[in-house]
Amino acid sequence: MADSMTAAVIGLGSMGWGAAVSLLRAGIPTTGVDLREDVLAKFSKESGMIAKTPSAAAAAADVVFVFVVNASQAEEVLFGENGAAATARPGTVFALCVTMPPSATIDLAKRLQDAGMLVIDAPVSGGSAKALTGEMSIMGSGASAAFDKAAPALDAIAAKIFRLGEDIGTGSQVKMINQLLAGVHIAATAEAMTLAKAVGLDLQTVFEVISESAGNSWMFGNRGPHIVQGDYTPHSAVDIFVKDLGVVSSEAGATACPTPLTETALALFKEASAKGLGREDDAAVAKLLAERAGIKLPGM
């Protein structure tokens, strides 16, 4: 099926870019859409096709991956002017890979289904490095027919596809839990490394020890080197976790479930953003803590 399948990727950020080049690597003709001309030119050099609008990209695609930042952007690229839903053929699979409130995913999916489309609630995880190698994890829910039709494309971008049932919204709920842990672990990493610096420890040594100890986490292993090296190139920005932990906080509030660690981490990300760090790597929350402590981390 991959030989005859075509795909479109709307949003060529770090995760969308990885998905798009992974699709090309698998031999699936893929059209990329992004607002940035330089990114489109780069994708063209990878032998990808480019389109100026979502509607142009979706017109000939069997599977459309949506990798924009939030629910309002998803609404725009699907149903706004030059939106993908207007030109997609009935039966096209839309994989909604956006981290957004489950209620927003459900609403967008219903509107796509009413237009004759198949939909997978398909948020992803794994970071930009795994995206580039086609080894993301997909937390997916939706009709079996959608998974079956999109299988070659899903296999091209993901090493693990969790099929979480047919109910749209379940994938987004599980991603919300993942982001709760991810955001709290990033904040904890920043706090730990700042304290290590404050008491005079060598950060590289601390990183090596903790990486082999019970205090380790995936986020510590991934973000710790950013702090050690003072490299805050935005693979995932502070503002992403302002948004994602905001979703967690809102959804938890609706169920009256206490999330004190989320609230603390969210406050740190919001403060970091307000101090001008919003577009830096999310590990830059460590700079905020270091400033409070009156110390300098690498890169400050």
TrEMBL record:
Per the UniProt entry, the signal peptide is none
EC number(s) reported in the record: 1.1.1.411
Show the catalytic activity.
L-threonate + NAD(+) = 2-dehydro-L-erythronate + NADH + H(+)
Q: Which GO terms describe its biological process?
A: organic acid catabolic process
Q: Which Pfam families match?
A: NAD_binding_11, NAD_binding_2
Q: Protein biosynthesis among the record's keywords?
A: no
Residues at the catalytic site: 175
Q: Which PROSITE patterns match?
A: 3_HYDROXYISOBUT_DH
Which controlled-vocabulary keywords does the entry list?
Carbohydrate metabolism, NAD, NADP, Oxidoreductase
Care to name a GO molecular-function term for this sequence? NAD binding
Q: Give the protein's biological function.
A: Catalyzes oxidation of L-threonate to 2-oxo-tetronate. Can use either NAD(+) or NADP(+) as cosubstrate, with a preference for NAD(+).
- By what name is this protein known? L-threonate dehydrogenase
Organism of this sequence:
Hwanghaeella grinnelliae
